[in-house]
Amino acid sequence: MNTYSVTTCRFCLPGRWKTLWVTFVLLLICSGSRSAVATELAMLQSLTPEETTAEVSEVVVRKNERRMFLMAGDEVLRSYRIGLGDNPSGHKLYEGDERTPEGEYTLDWRNANSDFYKSIHISYPNEKDRELASAWGLNPGGSIMIHGLPNDAEGMEFAYLGLDWTDGCIAVSNQEMDEIWALVSDGTPIRILP
């Protein structure tokens, strides 16, 4: 389980860990990283007590609705408006088709230093995806992620939100990506529906 998991919320940590976290925050503030600290604290303060103790059991994406849901069993913990690939209808068939895949996958690893504001990898392609692409003599592609905005989008965020602009990934705002990063553990299943 990663250090940002729901069950290890910084506000729920035992005294020793809470003291270490406060020390870390103070060091960041003193080193001039006020904006990063402010973003992290705002995200944590926006979580309800139920969200800090409920574990995300699954992520569900409904492509036609452009919505992504963080689920705890049958309960929706969070809902986000998403952007998809430039060609969003249908299942991803090959690299470069700019479609977002459909099916059941796993969120299997994350990258804090990606070309976009944080990214969590979706385990596409699975064996079925590889077989389908191979039958057509095509490469299924990969590197499908949930991520925030491009790192160079500062001041232009409005130009991305609510639009399909990725090459097949699932995009959210940077603030929403901070929440997802904190609430979703590696190994969480993701179901992407048409």
Automatic annotation (TrEMBL):
InterPro entries: LD_TPept_cat_dom, Transpep_catalytic_dom. It comes from the Bacteria. The active site is at H147 (proton donor/acceptor), C169 (nucleophile). Residues 57-193 form the L,D-TPase catalytic domain. Gene3D superfamilies: L,D-transpeptidase catalytic domain-like (2.40.440.10). Pathway: Cell wall biogenesis; peptidoglycan biosynthesis. Keywords: Cell shape, Cell wall biogenesis/degradation, Peptidoglycan synthesis, Transferase. GO terms for biological process: cell wall organization; peptidoglycan biosynthetic process; regulation of cell shape. GO terms for molecular function: carboxypeptidase activity; transferase activity. CDD domains: YkuD_like (cd16913). Belongs to the YkuD family. This is L,D-TPase catalytic domain-containing protein. It comes from Marinobacter confluentis.
